[in-house]
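Let's study a protein:

___
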Amino acid sequence: MVLKTKNENKNSIYVPDIARISRIEKLSPTEKLFNIAFEDEEKQNNFKFLPGQFIELTIFGLGEAPFCLASNPNNREFFELCVRNAGNVSSALHRMEEGSKIGIRGPFGKGYFPFEKMRNHNVLLIAGGLGLVPLMSLIKYIMQHREDYREIMIVYGAVNPDSILFKNDIGYWSNRSDISICISVDNPDDKWTGEIGVCTKLIPRVNFPPEDTYVVVCGPPVMYKYVIVELEKKNFKPENIYLSLERRMECGVGKCNHCHIGNKLVCVDGPVFSLWEIINLKEAI
C-alpha cells in the first residue's frame, strides 16, 4: 500500500474540522490515550497521514496545540492521540469525556519516518519517555507489514514503571519472536526486575550491522546528543538516523517561527529529519 502525503482537507488549513472523542484510556498517571473520529464520515474515511506527522487539536474557546498521531496510518475508523496533562490545552482535553467535541487541523509536516526506505532493512527504534508516542504509528505500520522488514528492536526508557506507556502493546510485542524489546527505568520500584538507568546504556547491546540498519530516535531534547554519541560509536550512518523534533512545534503551518532552526521550520520541513540534514544546524540537537 502507498500512503499519500497530501492533505486532502477541502477547507482552509487554518479552519479546524469538527471531531469527537470516541474513547479515552488512561495509560499512566499523566498520560491518556484518545480515540478520535471526524463527525463527517467522508472526512474520516479520507483522512490520511504518514508515520511521524502531526495534527493541531483545538479546544474551542481556549486554544490549540500540536500532537503527533499514535495510530496505524491504515486505520480509517479513528485515529489516536496520546496526550500528557501538561499545558492549558492538554489539561482541558484531560478533563473532557467520551463524546466531547474538539477541532482538528491537519495532518501537517512533510518530514516523516521513511518506512519505504526501511523495507528489507533492520530497524532500531529508540524512545525516551513520551517519545514513544510519535513512534507508535511507525511501529504499528511495521508490525502490520512485518514480512517487509528484517530485524526489529525497540529500546525504551521511562522515568519509573508507572510512567511506561502502551503497556498492553509492549506486552504483545514481548510475546512475539520477531521483535526485540529492551526497557529501562530511572527510578525502579520494589517490583521492577528489568534494566535500571537511561536508555542510552542499552544501545551498546545492539548488534545490527550499521550499513544495513535504519535508526529512529524520539525523546526529550537533552537525550539526543547522548544517543547520537552511542550510535556514532557503532558506526551508524547519519543519513540512516532519523530524529523527531516534534517538541519544538506550535502553529503547525510555519507562521509563528517558534520552531525555526537554521534554515528549517520543524512544522513544515519536519517534524522528522535525518541526522545528516540537521547535524550542522545550531540548536537542532
In short: Residues 132-144 form the longest helix (13 residues).
